Each structure stands twice: as structure tokens, then as C-alpha cells.
């Protein structure tokens, strides 16, 4: 079987298109999530707020505008299947050019600054930004490019704690509840609460990000994690924080958990929150062409 | 719970008449302000030429397009998408904004803290909530970008927008010590033990 040869200019085009598309059109699972929350919401103010958010999704599509002003930190998750031939360095450069072009040509607000000088290059790029994660899977002759413009209001709702084994799973559950309370309305609820359990400190936070940006309706592949996320989903929505932190039942669409093995001395937990503008877009490269989706 | 239609600027009496739960719609001028704007204004000694007395500031940094200057676009910027950012980061600037510049209304998302609530009581101010993340809708309430100051901070300049029917916005912090955020935090605190117990965890 011949290999998939990934065309670098096509990657640049896709990187540009995905950034703009992700900022404008929400995935169906999120739209459905809004309908589910609205149907179950008992608080009047909360229902009005959800209705405004649902209206905003329609206005963005009708006026071809951005859902939210925050263009986020651009993240690209690249998944490379079997029998794929691609120049990795050129791929990363192409993604960066795509981000710069989306920013200049649309135009988009560049939200990226140097962390010390705070200088904004007006390109949405900087040192190690866009964030590019590269992984591999067994899908034959396929390269998948997922774009996530991660909003800062919810990214500021990120927390890591290195508990110890004696603290047990109870500490993890308490930590999640307390951080959701601490974040309140600042993270733009209803949210997806991403929880990483286990690993090293950096892997734990990465798991939380994977969890926060996973489609609604998906479950953790680890049955222990799946049980924990179901339990936590119920618990956070019993707190009464509600949409925008102004009260109600709809604090979160869901809590998502991802797990990794950890050390005998460790019990790490990380929380990374995704706001209600849970934006994603994907491009899938196969021998038959490029398919755009969520 | 009353609705108020404001033509900016407003008086202290008008602002003090607002209570948590009321709604407000703004018309006329609205000023966009952000982290860097206020860091430069209050930590680095820069001043704005704008007269903010009696006015409202919106926690924002818009997406704009550079266009030729015209009557429609006097600043050379057209708005692409104007939304609202998380207010809590700008908590320490509420009092100086009111004291030094006479600002009466702060508009944002997620709420402000105790120091701001005290400033609203002491000086006569309110916080109005926009639905965060609903920027496509919010953009339709903006008529034009009329003026821009501290332009080198783009996109975190001080923007003067012309607005028509900007709202309805919910009064979530008032000048009488009322805060919807404090109420919700209290509710959540009272439910914490039960939420943990349902997962078999002691508070």
C-alpha cells in the first residue's frame, strides 16, 4: 500500500481555516449540551442567560462573526497514523504560518504577548506558541489536525496539586469541588471541567487539558476515571453556581477525567477548565483529500 | 426589579437608584478598558485625554480591522468582534478609576470582589454583567469606534465606542452592598458538604 504524502501548503491552509472556523462555529455536541442544560434548568435568571448564549451561537453563524472576542491561545493537536510521510519540521512551520495568516488576513485580535516584556507581535504567535502537540495512532494513511483556541478566562482556572497517597481519592474529589467554587463565574460557566489524575506534574496538567477539550458525550477510557467523572459531574451541578456564576443548576456541561499511572509516593490532581465557548475544529488528511469537521 | 434606560454620562443619583436584579440598557458613549490599559494608567503614570466622569467602562479588548479614516471610521479602526473579558483580574483598579476619573459604571463578566463593592458604596458606582462569551451578539450593540487613546497598547487601548441599546445588562453589584456573586458563593458554600457527602467524602 502506498503512503499518504502530506502536502505542506495544504497544512498551512488548513491551519488558517481551522483557527477561523473554530472561532465561529461550535461543534454539535456543545450545541446539544446547551439544549440539555436549558431543558433541566430550574432558575429563571440562569434560563435567560442560557437563552442569550444559544442566541449568540446563532448570531455568530448568521453574521459570520466570532463567537467570543477571545481568540485564545492557539493549540494544534496533530495525530499521525500509520503509513504517513510528512516532514515534521515543515509541518510545524506550516501551522505557524497558518496562524499568522489567519490573524492578519481575517483579521483576528492577536492575544499573544511575551511573558516578561508583554510585547504583542500582532501575529498570535510567540515562543512555543502556537502550542503544537504531536502524537501517533494506528489509523492507516491519516493525519488529523485538531485546532483549539483555548480561551484565557477559563485557562486561568487551572490548578495543580501534588497530593500524597495518604490523602486518597477523597482529596481529589474535594480539590475539584473547591476549585470549581473558587473559579465561580470567572471561568464563564457552564463549563467543561477537565480533571487529570495521576502521571507526573506536567502529564497530569496535560491530561486535564485533554479532558477539558474532549467532546461532550465521550467518556474516560479508564473505567475508574469514568466512574469518577460521572460522580463529579453530578456534584459540581449541585453547588448552585450556575451560568456566569449568577446561580442555577447549569454550572458545568460535564466533568471529564483522564488518568495516567503514577508513582507509589504520588497522588497528583490537575484541573483545567473549558468555558461554554468550547471551540474546536479538525482537518483530516487522507489519500482522498482533506475533510473539515469538529 | 426595574429596567433603566441610560444615556451616558449618568449622575451619582441615577447610579445609586440601581439595585441588584435591575436591568440597564446603555446609549451614547461606552469606554473599553483592559489589564494593560489600567496597568499603564495606574502603575506607570500615563494619563488618558478622555473625560470619563459619569461614564461606564467595559472590560474588553476588541477584534478590530484597520480601515482608511472616514466619517464612519474616524479612528481608522472598524469593529470586528467586541466582547467582554473576566473582570476579577482588574479588581484593584476599580477604586482609582472611580476616584481619579469619576467612572460610575463598570461592565464585565464574572464579577468583582469586596474592595470594588466597598468602592461602589463609598463613591457611588455599580457593576453590570454582560453574558461572557456572547460577543457576536454584543457586537451588534456597537455602532462605531469613535475614538482611541493609548493606541500603542493595541488591542488593549482605551476605546470610545458609540453604543445604541447596549444591553439589557444585569445589575449584579450595587452601591448598597448588594452582590449577586457573594450571594451565589454563600449558596455554594452551604451546599459543599452535601455535594461531598454524595461522593462519600467528609467535608
Structure description:
The complex is a heterodimer of chains A (294) and B (203). Chain A is α/β, with parallel strands linked by helices and 294 residues long. Chain A has 2 domains: 4-23 and 67-151 and 279-293; 152-274, no CATH class. Chain A has helices at residues 8-24, 28-40, 44-62, 88-105, 152-155, 168-183, 201-212, 223-236, and strands spanning 4-5, 73-82, 84-85, 131-140, 143-150, 158-163, 191-198, 252-260, 267-274, 281-286, 289-293. Chain A is globular. With 203 residues, chain B is of the alpha/beta class. In chain B, the strands form 2 sheets. Chain B has a 5-stranded mixed beta barrel. Chain B has a two-stranded antiparallel ribbon with strand order 4-5. In chain B, α3 packs parallel to α4. Chain B starts with a strand and ends in a 6-residue tail after the last helix. The chains are: A alpha/beta (294), B alpha/beta (203). The interface between A and B is large, with 57 and 53 residues.
Which helices and strands occur, and which strands form pairs?
The complex is a heterodimer of chains A (294) and B (203).
Chain A: E1 4-5, H1 8-24, H2 28-40, H3 44-62, E2 73-82, E3 84-85, H4 88-105, E4 131-140, E5 143-150, H5 152-155, E6 158-163, H6 168-183, E7 191-198, H7 201-212, H8 223-236, E8 252-260, E9 267-274, E10 281-286, E11 289-293
Parallel strand pairs in A: 1-3, 2-4, 7-8
Antiparallel strand pairs in A: 2-5, 5-10, 6-9, 7-9, 10-11
Helix pairs in contact in A: 1-4, 2-3, 6-8
Chain B: E1 3-7, H1 12-16, E2 23-33, H2 35-42, E3 56-59, E4 63-66, E5 77-81, H3 94-101, E6 105-108, H4 114-123, E7 126-129, H5 135-139, E8 142-149, E9 158-173, H6 180-197
Amino acid at each position: 500500500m502506498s503512503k499518504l504524502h502530506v502536502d505542506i501548503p495544504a497544512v498551512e491552509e488548513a491551519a488558517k481555516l481551522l483557527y477561523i472556523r473554530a472561532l465561529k462555529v461550535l461543534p454539535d455536541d456543545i450545541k446539544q449540551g446547551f439544549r440539555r442544560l436549558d431543558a433541566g434548568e430550574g432558575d429563571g435568571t440562569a434560563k435567560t442567560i442560557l437563552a442569550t448564549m444559544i442566541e449568540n451561537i446563532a448570531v455568530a453563524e448568521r453574521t459570520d462573526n466570532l463567537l467570543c472576542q477571545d481568540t485564545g491561545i492557539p493549540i494544534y493537536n496533530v495525530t499521525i497514523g500509520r503509513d504517513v510521510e510528512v516532514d515534521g519540521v515543515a509541518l510545524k512551520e506550516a501551522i505557524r504560518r497558518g496562524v499568522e495568516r489567519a490573524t492578519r488576513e481575517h483579521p483576528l485580535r492577536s492575544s499573544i504577548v511575551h511573558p516578561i516584556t508583554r510585547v504583542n507581535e500582532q501575529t498570535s504567535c510567540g515562543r512555543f506558541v502556537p502550542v503544537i502537540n504531536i502524537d501517533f495512532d494506528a489509523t492507516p494513511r491519516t493525519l488529523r489536525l485538531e485546532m483549539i483556541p483555548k480561551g484565557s478566562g477559563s485557562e486561568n482556572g487551572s490548578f495543580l496539586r501534588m497530593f500524597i497517597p495518604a490523602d486518597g481519592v477523597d482529596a481529589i474529589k474535594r480539590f475539584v469541588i473547591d476549585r470549581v467554587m473558587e473559579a465561580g463565574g470567572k471561568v464563564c460557566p457552564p463549563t467543561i471541567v477537565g480533571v487529570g489524575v495521576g502521571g507526573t506534574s506536567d502529564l497530569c496538567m496535560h491530561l486535564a487539558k485533554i479532558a477539558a477539550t474532549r467532546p461532550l458525550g465521550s467518556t474516560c477510557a479508564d473505567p475508574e476515571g469514568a466512574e469518577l467523572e460521572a460522580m463529579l459531574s453530578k456534584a459540581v451541578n449541585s453547588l448552585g453556581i450556575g451560568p456566569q456564576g449568577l446561580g442555577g443548576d447549569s454550572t458545568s456541561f460535564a466533568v471529564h477525567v483522564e488518568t495516567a499511572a503514577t508513582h507509589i509516593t504520588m497522588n497528583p490532581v490537575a484541573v483545567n477548565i473549558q468555558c461554554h465557548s468550547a471551540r474546536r475544529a479538525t482537518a483530516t488528511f487522507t489519500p482522498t483529500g482533506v475533510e473539515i469537521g469538529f | 426589579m426595574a429596567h433603566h434606560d441610560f444615556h451616558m454620562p449618568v449622575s451619582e443619583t441615577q447610579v445609586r437608584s440601581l439595585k441588584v436584579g435591575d436591568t440597564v440598557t446603555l446609549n451614547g458613549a461606552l469606554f473599553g478598558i483592559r489589564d494593560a490599559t489600567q496597568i499603564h494608567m495606574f502603575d506607570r503614570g500615563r494619563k488618558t485625554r478622555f473625560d470619563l466622569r459619569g461614564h461606564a467602562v467595559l472590560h474588553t479588548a476588541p477584534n478590530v480591522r484597520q480601515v482608511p479614516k472616514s466619517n464612519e471610521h474616524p479612528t481608522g479602526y472598524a469593529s470586528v468582534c467586541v466582547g467582554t473579558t473576566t473582570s476579577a483580574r482588574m479588581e484593584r483598579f476599580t477604586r482609582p478609576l472611580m476616584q481619579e476619573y469619576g467612572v460610575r459604571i463598570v461592565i464585565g463578566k464574572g464579577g468583582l470582589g469586596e474592595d470594588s463593592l466597598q468602592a461602589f458604596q463609598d463613591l457611588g458606582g455599580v457593576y453590570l454583567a454582560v453574558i461572557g462569551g456572547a460577543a457576536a451578539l454584543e457586537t451588534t450593540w456597537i455602532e462605531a469606534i469613535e475614538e482611541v487613546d493609548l493606541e500603542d497598547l493595541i488591542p488593549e487601548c482605551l476605546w470610545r465606542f458609540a453604543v445604541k441599546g447596549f444591553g439589557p445588562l444585569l445589575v449584579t453589584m450595587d452601591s448598597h452592598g448588594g452582590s449577586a456573586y457573594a450571594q451565589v458563593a454563600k449558596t455554594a458554600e452551604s451546599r459543599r458538604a452535601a455535594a461531598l457527602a454524595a461522593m462519600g467524602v467528609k467535608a
